[in-house]
Write a structure and sequence with these properties.
Chains: A alpha/beta, B mainly alpha, C mainly alpha
Distance between the termini of chain C: 42 Å
Largest sheet of chain C: 2 strands, antiparallel
Number of domains of chain C: 1
Structural class of chain B: mainly alpha
Strand content of chain C: under 5%
Strand content of chain B: under 5%
Number of helices of chain B: 18
Radius of gyration of chain C: 19 Å
Structural class of chain C: mainly alpha
Shape of chain B: globular
Oligomer: heterotrimer
Distance between the termini of chain B: 8 Å
Largest interface: B-C, 73 and 64 residues
Strand order of the largest sheet of chain B: 1-2
Order of helices and strands of chain B: HHHHHHHEEHHHEEHHHHHHHH
Chain lengths: 235, 447, 310
């Protein structure tokens, strides 16, 4: 069953066309990764799905329901969890409060879900009362993911979770993403770290300056010559 | 730019209808009878529970019809006015006939006016046009909000009073309790006042222009208030609230030639017209100079300007000082014509100048002058009831309308009556999330 | 009288006025928190609240004698109507002067100017509708109030005490609201990162409106308190407005507790300053404090933030 559909979406910043009519789809339970170099439009794609940008054209559907034109808080309420680029934890809220923000709309499972997040990320449990802004990069990323999980999303949008993190921590983060997906959360993962993303994902898309250049099963992309050259830094 | 999408209107038409009717009712109250503190609701009641309200509702519906038909929520008419104006004026500055025509109007029309109107033309239109030209450099070119602008005008006026004396009924009258040991012809006060005002501008601006733009607005506002409070309370220096009386009128004595600007307002007006024209030419050259380009760069993206080697603080300070000296200059001119006291230099006067600049179009020289002519002209005309409609604006109510003008311009036409091209582009760019169009920091306003 | 003799009296008056500044300052600080903008028209919200409360009390005032209980009820009614007027005014302000600009993503300068326009409009319209003379609370509202407390020799009337306690209560309630409610969490999240807050399901537009309204409720009630102590007039907003803004900056704009601290400190400083410089220069003292704090420590005493526990 197709959970998320992005169909022929165009996004403009003034005269600049950031997305020139891209399409993608994510099946229920999949991990799909969206690759591309800087400025290709990966973040714009996620932000458009979440309602932070209004598309000039095209439709976005979640489980058949249109997201297009809805403000971000409504998109969030429909079950889209977004871990933004640069993590964006609330710097002057504690870890606990950040997680509470994740459950802003519905606090009925607050306790239960907080415990679950602390189970996933024991490091956070040790720092519950610490301010978000004082956490290390890796901890902030964990917090951002945990925060997004607090809303029990149907699809989780992850924007470059490995950015600026040490390899060991990236490893942990990717393991957690895998674990979360195994528990049934569909994932759309934007990454520059193509090798790792493709190893985790079921399918992948490649964005090049606002247009979809390639797509296919992750294992095929992983051995594709062009992908290897441009995104895996080989050859 | 938080795009936390705004485009989602429940029903745009219904909203617009509501807006238009609301605007109509507010207009009905604003133009309606007064209330009092004994019967605070009477004004509103008599404005709305009266047959006249139907006229306003019809006006609201018309507004709705027109804005819906034209498909845009822009007030109509203005665009055409602007097109015609720019045809006449030649926005690019290459139409000398247009300029000559305007100049001819400015020279000839006043001859037909009543002495009272001529007086107002000098004091309310001309002086304010000059003030607006100066503030336009600060707000329009540099993107800095100066709410204490009139303080420099006060400095100019008090400087004049300090350096001059007059003979009334055979007695020497000093305008202030203290006076300069060397008394001067008012013409010689111009350079002194300009100097003092610009020094004051630099002293105020030096430390404060580093601040965020909104803080600058408040600090300049505070400066304006302090100057007024000091003028009001320093009796031994400023004569306190009694003000300065006895500044001589302007006079020229060159060789055998002697001329005094007397009671008649017209000679003052023509002198001022000449000054305004000179200032307009000077400021339009300024705009196109290296300084003007640097200021534009700062306005559009201060960080980038700084990074590419523009000394932003220096240029801002320069713009601030130019504005201050223009204001000081206008203060001298005012003082030689009109009695003044601290109340002349109120915050409202500063805001009036700001209103004129905004109405005319920030960054546009013609806009500043046109804004003064239209707003102050209307204010003058509407002192007396309009024939047939009987509508008038009492002096006390004038600032209700000026306040409304500011809001309406900001909501519907932020670029003003005669937009500056560059400025217009910047506003559009800023609205698309690029650049800042002011020097208030590149910070965004969320949602 | 020396400063030492006057000290406690000046302190009492300073704290009293400072508490009112603090109540108004919260409006500046809250709106600044969510929009990073100074709401130049906040002073008129205060003014309209003063009129709302005052006119309500006058309308409700029965003929005949007023006993203490009735007087308390009337004060409460005045506060309620003052708050309601302020809240309504702030709502209207956000709708007319802010929201249309936000919809098109106007540059920051435009907001400041439009708020200045709104301020000019509101205060002069109030002058037109409510008359241009200052209005007092009915004199007999506090006629029972003859006894006077004494704190270290400083005289405190029970009216003063009411003003101070009410202001204090409002400050405490607001602190609770910001730190412990859904709306408070929304306000803090929007203040720290509006985009991300919206991703969490926070309706940013709604939070902004409600922030304006909360600021308006406080300023409106504060306006009534001020009118009770002094009087109300259409120009009354300006000076307390600038002072409350000063208080907000002094404490660290965007910082709720900072606004309270800033209000009290400013109230004290200007009262002490007034003793040395004379009443004519009270306002100058406040402006000087503002300029100094902006130049020396623009982030204020407690720093700029809409902090953890407010």
């Amino acid at each position: 069953m197709t959970l998320l559909v992005v169909d022929d979406v165009v996004v403009r910043y003034g005269a600049v066309e950031a997305l020139k009519g891209i399409s993608l789809s994510v099946e229920q339970g999949e991990v799909v990764t969206l690759l591309g170099s800087n400025g290709a439009g990966k973040t714009t794609t996620l932000r458009t799905i979440s309602g932070l940008h209004a598309p000039a054209r095209g439709t976005i559907l979640l489980d058949g329901e249109p997201l297009t034109g809805k403000p971000p808080h409504e998109v969030a309420a429909m079950g889209v969890g977004h871990v933004p680029e640069g993590r964006r934890v609330f710097p002057r809220m504690s870890v606990n409060e950040n997680l509470e923000m994740g459950a802003y709309r519905d606090r009925s499972h607050l306790k239960e879900d907080t415990d679950r997040v602390f189970q996933l990320f024991p490091r956070l449990a040790e720092r519950r009362e610490q301010q978000g802004g004082t956490l290390s990069g890796g901890e902030q990323q964990m917090l951002a993911i945990g925060r997004a999980l607090m809303s029990r999303p149907r699809v989780l949008l992850l924007d470059e979770p490995s950015m600026g993190l040490a390899p060991l921590i990236v490893q942990t983060i990717f393991e957690i993403i895998k674990q979360v997906n195994d528990e049934g959360v569909t994932v759309l993962l934007v990454e520059q770290n193509a090798a790792q993303a493709l190893r985790l994902a079921d399918r992948g898309y490649v964005l090049e300056t606002g247009t979809m250049a390639m797509d296919g099963a992750a294992k095929d992309l992983l051995v594709d010559d062009r992908v290897r050259q441009v995104y895996l830094g080989e050859g | 730019m938080t795009t936390a999408v705004s485009a989602r209107l429940s029903s745009p038409l219904a909203r617009r209808l509501g807006g238009c009717l609301f605007l109509a009712l507010v207009t009905a109250v604003v133009t309606g009878p007064d209330g009092s503190n004994v019967h605070p609701l009477d004004g509103v009641k008599n404005s709305l529970l009266n047959t006249r309200v139907f006229g306003f509702l019809v006006f609201g519906l018309l507004l709705f019809a027109v804005t819906s038909l034209s498909g845009r929520t822009k007030p109509i008419g203005l665009t055409q006015v602007r097109t015609r104006l720019s045809q006449a004026v030649g926005q690019r500055g290459t139409r000398p006939t247009g300029y000559l025509l305007l100049l001819a109007i400015a020279v000839l029309v006043p001859l037909q006016l009543s002495p009272a109107a001529q007086g107002s033309l000098f004091l309310d239109v001309g002086i304010y046009a000059l003030l607006a030209l100066g503030l336009n450099v600060v707000v329009g070119y540099a993107g800095l909000l100066d709410l204490g602008y009139i303080a420099f005008y006060a400095i100019g006026a008090y400087t004049t009073a300090y350096f001059t004396s007059s003979v009334i009924n055979g007695k020497v009258v000093y305008p202030l309790p203290v006076h300069s040991p060397l008394l001067l012809n008012p013409f010689f006060v111009f350079p002194i006042a300009v100097l003092i005002a610009s020094v004051a501008g630099i002293i105020l601006g030096g430390p404060t222009l580093r601040l965020r733009g909104d803080y600058l607005a408040i600090v300049t506002l505070g400066f304006g208030e302090i100057v007024q409070i000091l003028a009001r309370n320093s009796d031994p220096l400023t004569n306190g609230s009694r003000g300065a009386f006895g500044v001589p009128p302007l006079s020229l004595h060159i060789g055998g030639f002697s001329y005094t600007w007397g009671q008649d307002a017209l000679p003052y007006y023509y002198l001022l017209l000449g000054i305004v024209v000179v200032v307009m030419i000077a400021f339009s050259r300024l705009e196109r100079s290296r300084i003007g380009r640097a200021l534009a760069a700062i306005r559009e993206d201060e960080v980038a300007a700084e990074a590419s080697g523009v000394q932003t603080l220096r240029y801002k300070l320069l713009a601030f000082a130019i504005g201050a000296s223009t204001s000081g200059f206008a203060g001298v001119l005012y003082a030689t014509r009109q009695f003044f006291n601290p109340e002349t230099f109120s915050l409202q006067a500063s805001i009036l100048v700001l209103t004129i600049v905004i109405f005319g179009g920030m960054g546009n020289i013609f806009g500043a002058v046109l804004g003064a002519v239209v707003l102050q002209g209307l204010a003058y005309i509407l002192r007396d009831p309009i024939p047939l409609i009987g509508f008038k604006v009492p002096d006390a109510d004038r600032f209700v309308y000026f306040g409304a003008v500011i809001m309406i311009m900001m909501v519907f036409r932020p670029q003003g009556l005669v937009p500056s091209r560059r400025r217009k582009r910047e506003i559009t760019m800023s609205e698309q999330g690029m650049g800042s169009a002011d020097s208030l920091g590149s910070g965004e306003v969320s949602a | 009288m020396s400063f030492v003799d006057q000290f406690w009296q000046l302190t009492v008056t300073g704290l009293l006025v400072g508490a009112i500044y603090a109540v108004i300052a919260l409006g500046y600080t809250l709106v600044y928190g969510v929009l990073q903008l100074i709401n130049f028209a906040h002073s008129e919200v205060f003014m309209l609240g003063a009129f709302g409360g005052l006119f309500a009390v006058r309308a409700l005032l029965p003929s005949g004698n007023i006993n203490a209980l009735l007087s308390v009820l009337l004060v409460l009614a005045g506060l309620a109507f003052g708050a309601a007027s302020g809240g309504l005014a702030a709502f209207a302000l956000e709708r007319t002067a802010y929201r249309p600009l936000r919809r098109r993503g106007a540059p920051r300068l435009a907001y400041l100017i439009s708020a200045i326009g709104a301020s000019l409009f509101a205060s002069n319209l109030a002058g037109k509708e409510f008359g241009r003379d200052s209005v007092n609370l009915p004199k007999d509202l506090f006629t029972y109030n003859t006894e006077v407390f004494s704190v270290f020799g400083a005289r405190v009337s029970s009216q003063d005490l009411v003003v101070f306690l009410v202001a204090l209560a409002m400050l405490l309630i607001l602190d609770r609201v910001v730190s412990g409610t859904q709306l408070g969490r929304g306000i803090r999240a929007v203040a720290q990162d509006a985009d991300t807050a919206s991703l969490m399901g926070v309706n940013v537009e709604r939070v902004i409106v409600r922030t304006f309204v909360i600021g308006g409720l406080l300023a409106g009630a504060g306006g009534f308190l001020y009118a009770m102590k002094f009087n109300a007039s259409f120009t009354m907003g300006f000076i307390p407005g600038v002072k409350a803004f000063t208080a907000a900056v002094l404490g660290g704009i965007g910082n709720v507790r900072g606004a309270v601290l800033g209000g009290l400190v400013l109230g004290l400083v200007e009262n002490y300053g007034q003793f040395f410089l004379g009443a004519d220069y009270t306002d100058v003292v406040a402006f000087m404090v503002l300029v100094l704090i902006l130049l020396v420590r623009p982030s204020g005493l407690l720093g700029e933030r809409l902090g953890r526990a407010a």
